[in-house]
Amino acid sequence: MALTVSSRSVRLAVLAGAGVLAATAVYAVTDHADASEGQAPPATAGHRTTAPAITPTGPTGPAAPSTTPSATQAPPAVADKAAPATTPAARATGAAGEKALAATRVTARQLPDRTAQKWKELAPPSTRQPGPEFQLNECVTVRGATGWQQQGFISAHKTPAVQDSLGFPDAASARAAYRAVLAGMKDCEATSRALQKRYGLAADARVRQTATAGETAAWSRTWTAVQGLSAPGAQANHIYAVRRGSVLVLLHFDEWDSAAPRSYDPKGDADVLAGLTR
Questions:
Q1: What is the DSSP code string of 212-270?
Q2: What are the pLDDT tens digits along the chain (278 aa)?
Q3: How deeply is 150 buried, as exposed, middle or buried, from its count of CB atoms within 10 A (0-12, 13-18, 19+)?
Q4: Which of 133, 231, 233, 242 has the fewest CB atoms found within 10 Å of its own CB?
Q5: Does the pTM exceed 0.85?
Q6: Which residues contact 228 (CB under 8 A, 6 or more apart)?
Q7: What is the C-alpha to C-alpha distance for residues 233 and 258, in angstroms, rounded to an integer?
Q8: In sequence order, what DSSP letters do the residues of the chain get, joined into one string?
Q9: Which residues contact 131 (CB under 8 A, 6 or more apart)?
């Protein structure tokens, strides 16, 4: 299900949300088709559904299916390990800003549950200019970023992980963005359950904070997801947020029950946060 982008910046997505590339999006369309049946709500003004996209697309907000993003917002092709997309606007963030973003980058070996997931990088990191708003998931919107670097990963189960590093004009702006993430995730269980009810699903979403230290925090969300910002079906989402100076680091990975049994223990999230601060 593709979603309207307009001027927003978003993560690369599986069906507009779970976070990697076209190959994983195709997987989501084919292997999650049954889970999405009956999820579309009655048509309303300003709410239009379309067939699932098989290329990464971008969301505008919770469960608002509409159209695919413009060409300027489409992520770079990755099948041939293409060079990262760097627009003139992205270069305008300056060398210092790009260095700050690059300094936060993680590798596949640093990702959680790497033994079971066998993470691989999909392409070099992509640097681009963010729009006025960045949608992390159904619960969190970040505003005011001036730089954006993204790295996609894929597991042996064809499930996604994405790191987004968002640069801000100063540390105070990055701190405000981090607090916006905290606020969105605080209400994420209620937000997710309201979305499930809208789509006629059992309201089984559960969200808990799994670790926190200083300006770092981690969460786990388990639920029967609505297709759109997330791939549909039973799953666990793991979300991490860290403020590093003027950069907000966001890491997200998913476990889909239809792909493999859940193997990650969130007790390890404190170590993940510690790794993201170095």
A1: E-SSEEEEEEEEEEPBTTB-SEEEEEEEEEEEETTEEEEEEEEEETTTS-----GGGHH
A2: 323 333 334 444 332 333 344 334 333 333 443 444 445 443 333 322 222 332 333 333 333 333 333 323 333 333 333 334 444 333 435 556 888 999 999 999 999 999 999 999 998 899 988 889 999 999 999 999 999 999 999 999 999 999 999 999 999 999 999 999 999 999 999 999 999 999 999 999 999 999 999 999 999 999 999 999 899 999 999 999 999 999 999 999 999 999 999 999 999 999 999 999 98
A3: buried
A4: 133
A5: no
A6: 1, 3, 15, 16, 17, 59, 62, 63, 64, 65, 138
A7: 8
A8: --B--TT-EE---STTTSS--HHHHHHHHHHTHHHHTT-PPPPBTTB---PPPSS-----STT-B--PPPGGGSPPP-TT-PPPP--HHHHTT-HHHHHHHHTT---GGGSTTHHHH--EE-SS-EEE---SEEE-SSS-EEE--SEEEEEEEE-TTS-EEEEEEEE-SSHHHHHHHHHHHHHHHHTHHHHHHHHHHHTT-----EEEEEEE-SSEEEEEEEEEEPBTTB-SEEEEEEEEEEEETTEEEEEEEEEETTTS-----GGGHHHHHHHHT-
A9: 7, 8, 9, 73
Please give the single-letter amino acid code of residue 173: S
The amino acid present at 184, given as its one-letter code, is: G
Tell me the Cα Rg of the chain.
17
List the structure tokens of 246. Answer: 């003027």
- Residue identified by tokens 């999405």 is 36
What token pair was written down for 188?
A: 């994420």
